Amino acid sequence: MVGCVSTLDGKHKAGWPFAQDTVEGRYERPMDQVWRAAKDTLAYNGVVTVENVVGHTLEAKVDTRTVWLLVESLSPTTSRVLVQVRTKGGGTDKRLAADLDKQIAVRLASGNLMPATPPARTR
User: Fold this and answer.
1) Predicted TM-score of the model (pTM)
2) Are 40 and 110 in contact (CB under 8 A)?
3) How far, in Å, CA of 97 to CA of 69, rounded?
4) Residue-range definition of the domain harbouring residue 24
């Protein structure tokens, strides 16, 4: 049964409505550091297509997947990241969402908040 799915940026997209597609991460870091790490992680893995600095959301294409990411400040020193991934046909890819969240965590833990160069792709 295909229906409408709400995305993290407040829009709707066709997809499987009852499937879990979002991963949450909480970090003991200010929101600006988490935002930078999230944006760099998406740029490293794909192409950031929409950056909403007011709503603190990002949209990106990673391979054939669409990724939405929301960064929220829970306190001055704690932030929350929600990563939502949908396939072209409206299915979910929770594995990619969890991998992106883990990459954000590693980037924050290592203190590497500089943009990374994507790995060379082989044919």
Assistant:
1) 0.81
2) no
3) 9
4) 17-110
